[in-house]
Amino acid sequence: MAIEVRIPTILRQYTGGAKAVQASGGSLSSLIDDLEAQHPGIKARLVTQDGALHRFVNVYVNDEDVRFTGALDTGLSDGDSVTILPAVAGG
Amino acid sequence: MVTLRKSADGYGGNLLVVLTIDRSVRDAIVAHARRDHPDEACGLVAGPVGADRPERVIPMTNALRSMTQYDFEPGEKLRAYREMDDRDEEVVVVYHSHTATEAYPSRTDVRFASQPASHYVLVSTRDPDEVEFRSFRIVDGGVTEEEVRVTESVPD
Lengths: 91, 156
What we know:
Chain A has two helices and six strands. By secondary structure, chain A is of the alpha+beta class. In chain A, a hairpin with a 2-residue loop joins strand 3 and strand 4 (64-65). Chain B has a seven-stranded mixed sheet with strand order 1-8-7-6-5-2-3. Chains A and B meet through strand 3, strand 5 and strand 6 of A and strand 4, helix 2, strand 5 and helix 3 of B.
């Protein structure tokens, strides 16, 4: 199973500078675990200690923001594309 | 903890403590802020990777349509980042406006500032006649104000 994951500039320190990597997983949660196995340290930037998606990143699966598709429970299939972007918000 | 310092001569050379921005870019940001007032306006300015030159203004829709908060509309943000990637650009400036308070990063702004390599521009439209336009670096939760140098490009 191969899913392309696009990595934002701020997280490329974990992927040796790569802006896209391959990973696998049936859900976003397991994909992130696979990312962590290949690129140690990256999971802590994506998932909080409570096991929720960090509010400082936005994740898209096939162009849909996962906040609207079940967050970490979002299901993934072979050939899907995942994009991680920094959250840009404030007040 | 990152410490930002000016270069020895106090001017230029150090990319970290000055925002150099063309007047047309600055004016576009201010116009956007005025247009969305009293809601907070937000957007990006893209430029060639590594050049620290804010060239292409990308106004974004504030998905929250709020007078006190902003968040980029997710679909627009994805398209903007993809486009920057295709064009070998990066985010040089993240800008947003405060419509009733000063042009200084709020606690929320600092908490959410996740791009240490970008300049954070704050515009305040609290005064209808005089706009405040200030720029900051936000690194590891620390705010450093920087000089804004407005350049005038020669019209073709």
